[in-house]
Amino acid sequence: MKDRAVRGIMRLARPAACGVLLLLLVPGCTPNNPYRASERGANIFYTTFSEPPKHLDPGRAYSSDEYDLIGQIYEPPLQYHYLKRPYTLIPASAAETPGPVYYDKNGKRLRPSAPAEAVAKAVYEIKIKKGLAYAAHPAFAKTSGGAPVYANLTPDAARGINEVKDFPIKASREAVSGDFVYGIMRLADPLVECPVLPILEKYILGLKEYGDALRADLAEIRRQRKEAAGPAYNQDTDERERPIILDYRRHKLPGVEKAGAYTYRVILKTKYPQFIYWLAMPFFAPVPEEAALFYAQPALAGKNITLDRFPVGTGPYMMDTFNPNMEITLVANREFHGETYPTEGGAGDLEAGLLKDGGKPMPFIEKIVFKLEKEAIPRWNKFLQGYYDNSGIGTDSFDQAVSISAGGRAELTGAMKAKGITLTTSVRPSTYYAGFNMLDPAVGGYGERARKLRQAISIALDFEEYIEIFNNGRGIPAHSPLPPGIFGYGGRAEAAIDPYVYDWDPARKRPVRKSIEDARRVLKEAGYPEGRGADGEPLVITFDNPWTGVDSTPMINWYIKRFKLLGVQLENRTTDYNRFQEKMLKGNFQFFSWGWNADYPDPENFFFLLASSNGKVKYQGENAANYSNAEFDRRFKQMENMDNTPERMGIIAEMTDLVQRDSPWVWGFHPVAFGLHHRWVSNVKPNAMANNTMKYARLGAAQRELLRDEWNRPGWGIAAAAAAAAAVITGGAYVLARRRGGTAADNRGHRPCSPTS
Amino acid sequence: MPVILATDLIVYALALSAAWFAVKTRRDGNVRAAWLELRRRRLAMISLALIALYAAVALADSIRYRDAAQGGGYSAEALSLLDRAASGLRTRAEKTYSAPFSGRLFSKESVELPDGRVVRDYPALKYPGAHWLGTDKVGGDILFASLKGVRTGIVIGAGATIVVIPFAIFFGVVAGYFGGVIDDVVQYVYTTLASIPGVLLIVAFMLLFGGRGYQGGLISEKDVALAFFVPNDRLFWLCVILGITSWTDLCRLIRAETLKLRELEYVQSARTFGAGGLRIIYRHIVPNLMHLVLITFVIQFSGLVLAESVLSYIGIGVGPEMGSWGNMINTARLELSREPVVWWNLLAAFIFMFGLVLPANIFGDAVRDALDPRLRGR
Amino acid sequence: MFSYIVRRILYAVPIVVGVNCLTAALFFYVNTPDDMARKILGEKNVTPAAIENWKAGHGYNLPAFVNAKESGLGTLTQTVFFQKSAPLLWLDFGRSDRNNIDIGGEIKTRMWPSLAISVPIFIAGLASELFVAMMLARWRGTLLDLWGLVASVVMMSVSALFYIIGGQYVLGKYLMLFPISGYDAGVHSIKFLVLPVVIGVISGVGSGVRFYRTVFLEEMGKDYIRTARAKGLGEGRVLFKHGLKNAMIPVLTNVVVSIPFLFYGSLIMETFFSVPGLGNFTIDAIQSQDFAIVRSMVYLGSILYIVGLILTDISYTLVDPRVRLE
Predict the structure, then answer these.
(1) Using only C-alpha atoms, what is the Rg of chain A?
(2) How is A720-750 classified by DSSP, letter by letter?
(3) Where is the domain boundary, A619, A646, A674?
(4) Which of A235, A307, A382 to mutate: most C Cβ within 10 Å?
(5) Among B37, B148, B55, which residue's Cα sits nearest to residue B360?
């Protein structure tokens, strides 16, 4: 009996064991291959995401990691040209780039160069392409009678369905102007929680009132439901079981008009040339109403099937699997209206081979796999093993990948070149800075004394060194808030440097940071000789930051070290992000460090960080330093609505002079992004503004397979040696067991109680 | 001007109790017997010596004072005896990584020659050969960082238990001695606390209290009470919550032991002579529980030291400016992916941690065996 | 037996309620709804209106514990505490704060990867610990015993982080025997699981061996073993037949209570190896301060703990008929 059972188990065990071995061995001879054997040689691009995307709803998503995904799926009217620099807008789902038409308050049409004060209405008429089609989706599936197939799904009907692709019937339909209008109306829906609504409300005619009306509707529905349910009312449960769908047609939104099936208009209250950039963001992509209704079924929401996770767009790719805990895959959208690779580019693109696919239909890659990879180390190692097609460079793998050549240019190291890896660099339109609280009695204010204090600190905080230590030189020291590539950036020319922090070295034709002695002298002039105030007390400045993580200690120590050179004591106040925010809001801080990523490549998007109308404490805006200078504000008002003319350039230069003198920020640096990709990936050019770049990339899957096999020869020899060593130890154990030992018999064990085990 | 952190009190308490035990071994027969039993074990004695060495470093790092600043007032830096003794290590910073005993930096940098040419080379160190364990990312000496971690390790290992001992004894004894409703309530409290997953409780608690505490580095007048005491110390809160998550075992043990002691003859007779409950508890019960406390203390020690590194990984450990091995390991994870590998930071943390935890484990076993062989296997 | 279990479950109710209140109090005090909203809405354009809208949308615009604006029962039910915490009692975990996902559904799907990694670690770990411990007990007093003990003390003095970092470096990166990290569904997961399981077993083996060795030695000293030995049974047979059986009670105490926690996964293992389990879920929630999730996980953890205690008691009666539960 027993024997038979054992034999039975053996019979089962053998194939199982073989299966395990096979699984280990099948993908070539590379047991460390993380992908299935069936994916060998397929036209699949492998990359990663570091944390699960929170929102994929085009009305809600706002972070770069979310845009990496939905940028490929949703198609706003405009997009940035992939190759041209400076960044140029070209049509995406629109047929042409719209130009605004301005009207004064009497309805009279104005010239395009009309001053902002005269403009009472700015109309953008957007013509969209014909033949835009949504990727196949169950929301469009109709019965022969024309009713949606999947309406009023019961939990029973939804059994076995965990993703959108599990629905058997899918259909597509053309995207028309009504979908674009619907998408804009959704932004005002309080249930969507659009993060840029406060900004858009300032510009789009009637959007604020419309949003308020929808909010009132929502509150009213909730009130009624609560009344009906009595004390047992639970909003969460209630809205999970009966999702609220607001009726957008109950109110009128005058700022958006449909004008035929392929045309719609957006009407702004003021002149706002930057609006065109907004049209390149997914907020303005078409959204089908069917999808919104489809997802509002309780049977689906309970399975986490929502528009926030399963997008429905007209772009080159569509969502295939969405498992944010493991992987997200996009596949080419069969219904994509078609787009060809650009035939012209910027300087040097032809030589770089970036134009050889010109005119060919995109997308080139069949499937994109995003794997969740939180830890930098495994991610980097897998890139080197050839299992990811591209990678950034962490500071800690920098030396391994890049060396700076004699000319100061970044170059790949020999090991990377041998692997055929390519390096791309691009300055990001962002700035990292350290700011003073201008409301603070000690470091703030606009008197000579406070100004000099800030200037002295600006000199002492040697960001050239900071970039070298913490970013491996991947940054450009800043002289003003504007990063390179933005209109008005002065470059490293003599006229553009910050004269309070740098001197001009005419021999080498470049700015040189003033010495620490200069800083001490300025500090003395400010009334703090050797960092001591009039009373002889050392000057203590508090430093607020929300830094956590590996680099935070060295970074804070660096700040402290630099301040110490002035004799000023920097008191570190690291807190969690929430408290940091709270302190910033209340103005309860002296010195802080923060950063800003541009929404669009326009100087307005940087200078508004210093406009007093954006004061953090007063208006809860983004001006965290609470800088307030009437001169600056006046010029800002003038500059913000101008087109990029030489006149605008002049005003920007004046504004730059003002903030350089007042030094509300220590201009930190503009980060430079370094990217790597393997030799089998082509058509890669970094583009800091565009988020729909996957469609341009091309892949040599066969070459990749060969190289992967070559790079991943497991150390069987060493493993065998280790196994042999283990066998020897076991043998040794047998020998040891024959010998009497010392005191071990009474030295007994315990289970340690660790609170984290 | 002396400065005392809340966690310094833990180190002092540890030092005082060590001294008290030393005196006790001469006076008290039972303790003396246990000590003699311990003395017989060579390994335990070696371990004790190592632990004492660590404790001495921790003590030296817990006595700190601020120098008078020029023109009155005090410097915002409260340097400990250790900082002062190792001031060479502390101040001789390089620019960035350098390997142990090396004379050059670990990574190449663009160096500008006088003629304006830029070459890429390994720059020479300011203090070649001075860094026995290498330097970290901002050029700090690793040996010094490891030494600073000693205090954190000792404080966490000892502090968590020391902080809760009074409560555990009080609740355990009261529950065991009086029984009834009190017993039910105490049992309810500790079962409830024990049933919350430890890490999550620690996270919530540290977010609640730890965020605003002193985390090392410069001292601001706002933190200081009575001109020398810093009560709001992040590390102290960490000890408290680690104590709360680990006190149930001790409390349960004490309760069970009290139940037993209560029925013993001499306690019963004391009661018939009319001694009050509190008096009996104080005179007869608590002294007979101390061995349990001591055993729990030494046995929990090593687990707690190891726990610190894990907590730092999750990001709720010790603040960035208070040196800790957990922070070092955390940094070292990234350094391992460099090529060539920066291994010395990890190695230093490993050696220093291992050097404390291994003796603590060995000594803990020995103490338990010497004091109460029945507890083996707990 | 049945009535005992019922009684134990009833006894667990106040504990569960206590945990619920305690976590609610802790978390709502840590993070006021305003904090939460600010954190979740991100860095840019966080206006008071947006905060109010978020709070209203997520039911955080109510008072914390008592709603004076309502009457009757409503004063208690129309509060953040009741709306967010009470449903946990009937295992309705609600939606997460940050991205509105259904936490219950998420727990159900993430449970499997957690089990895939924790069950093998548990079984292989327990088996190897018991085996080695038994070997040491069998040859107690020999050099094998001495060195085995030394090795286990050394092994348990090393932080788990070292094992993980070292294992990934040597086996994954240097020898390229396993994928460094990752996960795949179903049978494809095997190649990803080997490395974490090996590391998980190794990091636990030190303390386990010491503990079980003590347990066995204690049994070996008992009279019945001596009797068995006197009967002329071989040492190995004595140990396996009698020793193992009787050592079951202390082993069970140690083991059964942790079985329910297998669902819970391992926080650190899962993050290092990118296994999409519950441990990873919890860490994510902690790091993004999504307290709806953390609260749910705390609550789930305490329920699992209580289940473990009850299971332990029941298992006693199964292995040892002398133990009766009443």
Answers:
(1) 31
(2) HHHHHHHHHHHHHHHHHHTSB-SSGGG----
(3) A674
(4) A235
(5) B55
Answer yes or no: is A52 within a domain.
no
pLDDT at residue C125 in the model: 93
Task: Tell me if C301 and B200 make a contact (CB, 8 A cut-off).
Answer: yes
Which one of C100, C145, C181 has the shortest CB-CB distance to A744? C145
pLDDT at B308 > cutoff 70 = yes
Which tops the pLDDT comparison, A704 or C50?
A: A704
- Let me know whether C190 and C41 are in one domain: no
Mean pLDDT computed over A601-623: 89
Tokens of A663: 């030094």
**CATH number where A497 lies:** 3.10.105.10
* pLDDT for A342 beyond 90: yes
Q: C257 to chain A, minimum CA–CA distance in Å? A: 13
Residue A58 lies in a domain: no
pLDDT mean over C134-139: 84
Which residues of chain C does A20 touch, with a Cβ-Cβ cutoff of 8 Å?
190
User: Do C57 and C126 fall within a single domain?
Assistant: no
Residues C82 and C202 in one domain: no
The structural domain count of chain C equals 2
Which chain C residue is nearest to residue B190, measuring alpha carbons?
C15
Examine residue C95 and state whether it is found in any structural domain, yes or no. Answer: no
Q: What integer pLDDT is reported at residue B116 of this predicted model?
A: 67
Average pLDDT, chain C: 81
Which chain A residues are closer than 8 Å to B303 by Cβ? Answer: 752-755, 757
C-chain residues near A739 (CB < 8 A): 142-144
Going by pLDDT thresholds of 50, 70 and 90, the confidence category of residue C59 is: confident
Residues of C with CB under 8 A from a CB of B: 14-15, 18-19, 22-23, 26-27, 29-31, 153-154, 156-162, 165, 169, 211, 214-215, 218, 250, 264, 267-268, 282-283, 286-287, 289, 294, 297-298, 301-302, 305-306
Q: Same domain, yes or no, for C108 and C77?
A: no
The pLDDT value recorded for residue A421 is: 92
Q: Which of C32, C60, C90 is the last residue of a domain?
A: C90
| Burial (0-12, 13-18, 19+ Cβ within 10 Å), A669 | buried
Residues of chain C neighbouring B188 (CB-CB closer than 8 A): 14-15, 18
The mean-pLDDT minimum among A337-341, A627-631, B313-317, C97-101 falls in B313-317
Query: Which carries the bigger pLDDT value, residue C50 or residue A180?
Result: A180
Domain boundary (A305, A325, A355) is at A305
- CATH number for the domain harbouring residue A277: 3.90.76.10
Mean pLDDT of B101-119: 74
Which residue would you say has higher pLDDT here, A627 or C280? A627
The answer to whether residue C59 is domain-embedded is yes
**pLDDT at res. B211:** 64
Answer yes or no: is pLDDT of A757 > 50.
no
Q: How far apart are alpha carbons A349 and A330 in whole angstroms?
A: 28
Confidence of residue A707 (pLDDT cuts 50, 70, 90): very high
Query: Quick one: residue A193, left, alpha or beta (phi over 0 = left, psi -120 to 50 = alpha)?
Result: left
The DSSP element (H or E) to which B364 belongs, if any, is: helix B344-371
From chain B, pick out residues whose CB is under 8 angstroms from the CB of A553: 320-321, 327, 331
Q: What is the CATH number of the domain that holds C217?
A: 1.10.3720.10
Domain ends where: C90, C116, C150?
A: C90
Q: Decide if A329 is inside a domain.
A: no
C81 within domain boundaries: yes
- Domains present along chain B, CATH in parentheses: 2-92+141-371 (1.10.3720.10), 96-140 (no CATH)
For residues A144 and A248, state if they share a domain: yes
Q: List all residues 6 or more positions away from C249 whose beta carbon is below 8 Å from its beta carbon.
A: C316, C319, C320, C323
Q: List the single residue in C19, C283, C298 with the smallest CB-CB distance to B314.
A: C283
Measured distance CA(A432)–CA(A426) in Å, rounded: 16
User: Does this complex have an ipTM over 0.85?
Assistant: no
Stretch among A416-430, A594-608, A664-678, B257-271 having the lowest mean pLDDT? B257-271
Range of the domain at C59: 2-90
pLDDT of residue B320: 67
Where are the alpha helices (H) located in chain C, listed in sequence order? 2-30, 33-41, 48-57, 74-77, 80-89, 103-138, 143-156, 160-167, 190-220, 223-230, 235-237, 244-246, 248-256, 267-272, 278-287, 291-319
Mark yes or no for CB contact B299/A536 under 8 Å: no
